[in-house]
Amino acid sequence: MSRINTNVSSLTAQRVLGQNNQSLGTSLERLSTGLRISRGKDDPAGLIASENLRSEKAAIGAAISNSQRADQVVNIAEGGLQEISSLLTELQGLLTTSANGAGLAESEKEANQLQIDSILQTIDRVAGATSFQGTKLLNGNFDYQVNAVNAGVTDIEVRGAKFNGETQVVDTIVTASAQKAGYFLSIGTTGGIDLSESGNQFTFEISGSLGNRELQFDSGATVVNMAAAINAVSDVTGVEATASGTGIMLSSTEFGSNEFVGVKIIDDASIMTVQTGAAIVDMTADDFNTPDSTSTTAFNAAAASNGLRDEGQDIAGTINGLLATGRGKTLSVNSDFLDVKFSTTDSAAQTLGAISGGAFTITGGGADFQLAADVNIAGKVSIGISDISSRKLGTSSLGFLDDLASGKAFNVVDGNDIDTAQDIVSAAIDKVSSTRGRLGAFQKNVVGATIRSLGVALENTTAAESVIRDTDFAAETASLTRSQILVQASTNILSIANSQPQQVLALLG
Question: What is the side-by-side order of every strand in the sheet holding 260-267?
Fold first, then answer.
């Protein structure tokens, strides 16, 4: 080096020292903050990915909180339903006690009625008092509102519905009719039965879903007499009869595949020798009220003595393009977007094709919970909690629970129809227990699974964001040590480079 105006070695040493100082500062910042990326220049692409992951973490955390809140709401509703269920069980016992008419004094019946009234009032009070942050849970606040209900549709229960827009029409197509089980017992004459020998009795067994009974008839018994005898035991057989011309129409009391009618000829009393047209006639496949004259079994045939059995048929159809489940006259569908159940009238259940104008229209309501990070219809869960008050527990065909109150149709003091009263209570128990089961399934399978799934997603998203943004202390500590050494070395070299021009003084002698 023989020039002193420009010290290139010093400039180089300064540049390298500056770079090493910058590297040292970066390491110190990362180790002190714990972040590898503090600003955009640290890693532009990494910053974008990290911010997106942070946003996802916030949304997932909120969804977990929503799920836990939903679980608490359902817990409170379940508590109220549990108490109402206990009251209904007690009510069932009171009705059974009150049915023991000969063993009860009038004062005891009145005391039982007082208890029934108290239970009904308590049910209404619990339904009105069960709330979350001031919102009533069991009084219909979270029930779905429907209108434009078709005349052929009854007992609507909307258990869940998600849809865009203000309303959702429930379109229904009946593809198979509901049918009762049945036979036509043809006597062959409009008059009474005529047995060939005096003293003989025409004996047959009627059976249904509730049980069976054996009946005997002498000569002269008319179809009206025979139908009346069959109807007298319909409560224990599940089979009803109607006199029709030369015979008796037998049918199950209810619709559906669970119902059946069985006929077994025990003793035909040689009726065929006089009334040759006597036979058991099948019904047509699509109408349980119409005998099929091409399919008959004579009373003295082996098949008749062995017993014949006909089963009912469940309604079948589609609801909003989804295959519905049919049970008797009831259709239901359960999907992520629509969960409904409703019954049809006898006429609608046996009329194939679309229900005109739709079965009904859902106009709103229900309890909506946002259980996913993305706010859209797929991430929302909707569930309906119907009104559990006494005036809503029961069915339109039987009656409702408040009909058991004093002065109403089925109070026990007046000795009114306790059989029907008990059926109403059974229907109420079914509704409450099914609601509890549905809410329990929602807690266990929807909320519980969602919390667990979101917990794993939050963990993995946090790990991914940490890999991108957080400091690797092992690597950064090693980098810090390297930078410290390089800064010390660069400083020493700069000192040497700065002193190197002094050697030119030796040339000046």
Answer: 212-217, 202-208, 260-267, 308-311
Q: Let me know if residue 132 belongs to a domain.
A: no
| 217 lies in the same domain as 302 | yes
Q: Is residue 236 domain-resident?
A: yes
83 part of a folded domain? no
What is residue 319's three-state secondary structure? strand
Helix axis angle, 44-98 relative to 449-469, nearest 10°? 170
Tokens 């489940």 belong to residue: 325
> What gap in Å lies between CA 36 and CA 49, rounded to an integer?
13
For 405-447, the pLDDT digits (tens) are 888 887 777 666 788 888 899 999 999 999 999 999 999 988 9
Residue 359's nearest CA partner among 144, 152, 145 is 152
Separation of alpha carbons 96 and 403, rounded Å: 17
For residue 488, CA distances in Å to 7, 20, 116, 419, 495 come to 20, 9, 94, 100, 11
Six-digit token pair at 240?
């009803």
Amino acid identity, position 266: I
Q: E-assigned strands of 36-117?
A: none
List pLDDT tens digits, range 445-456: 889 999 999 999
SS3 13: helix
Residue 125 lies in a domain: no
- Residues of the chain scoring pLDDT < 50: none
- CB-CB contact of 273 with 196 (8 Å): yes
Q: Are residues 302 and 322 in the same domain?
A: no
**pLDDT value of residue 415:** 64
Domain that holds residue 198: 182-311
CA dist 253 → 179, 234, 235, 247, 259 (Å): 11, 8, 9, 18, 8
Kindly report the CA angle at 44 between 38 and 49, in degrees rounded to 5? Answer: 85
Distance CA 325, CA 334 (A): 9
pTM to 2 decimals?
A: 0.76
